[in-house]
Amino acid sequence: MKKNSKIYIAGHGGLVGSALVRRLNANGYFNLVFRTHAELELRNQASVKTFFSEEKPEFVIMAAAKVGGIYANNNYPAEFIEDNLLIQNNIIHNAWKHNVKRLLFLGSSCIYPKKAPQPMKEEYLLTGPLEPTNRPYAIAKIAGIEMCHAYNRQYGTRYLAAMPTNLYGPNDSYDLNNSHVLPALIRKMHEAKQANAKEVVAWGTGMPKREFLYSEDMADACIYLLEQLEDKLVNIFNDEFPPLINIGCGEDLSIRELAEMVTEVVGFTGRLTFDTTKPDGTPRKLLDVSRLTSLGWKAKTKMAEGIRLAYADFLQGAESKRKQDEQLSLAN
Q1: Per the residue annotation, which of 29, 137, 168, 214 is the catalytic one?
Q2: Per-residue pLDDT tens for 149-161?
Q3: Is 137 in the active site?
Q4: I need a labelling partner for 100 at 20 to 30 A (CA). Which of 22, 192, 263, 309 fits?
């Protein structure tokens, strides 16, 4: 991938996509292509075909997806499987039809079995039942991985499927119902601090363990993979197993430890309790990242520093919204 290569980032406005755009710009890539949802409906086959025909990108990074936490996955399973299948099918097929040199498909660590041995190696894919709360999303992502593999085998493409662990960082969603655990905790703790509340209640037992990766590190890993020559990735591109690689930091912590860390960063001084009637999800999700580290890449951002940066982003977003509301109020 050269500095003037034409690179399409699908889903550039979200947590993952915006991190990729920032990192590409920082690394000197200037020929970037993206579209807002209003400009291009990725679920529409004809629209995606027209886009690829007109723009002819050389590289594609697929960050576009319908995502959410346990609540969203539980309540909107049909949308999670349908939307993600439509998006990825349209992009992968048209990438092949229009001679894209390399495609990077981004999935999630939830593709692995609920009771997979820890840490989870890439070869554990499809070796056991999935976590029921996010199975429709996971199956859609597994289909995307298999589609990359199928096109590589049949057409000689070099599409790579990267599975990041739980991500957080700038431009995250802080919706209490639909966001992931870390941004939800940041918002809960902040609002409790503002209200001088005596208690914050978190979901589940606090016992499950999770791995988290700062979004800027994830973007750095993705670009690093796209920059590698094919012979360095020879062990990933083969007919026997999907072209799959984990992206993570290789360390995890319990949800209770995470909540306590967020409490300290935000400065909430009340009690932290857990609602054990709420679902825990998978007991543990730690990725084996030895395949990635063997290529020469390691995460840089430590957890405490990442949470501080994420909280600063949350505060900036909250202040921006306050000013917008103030202006609207004055206009009315």
Answers
A1: 137
A2: 999 999 999 999 9
A3: yes
A4: 22
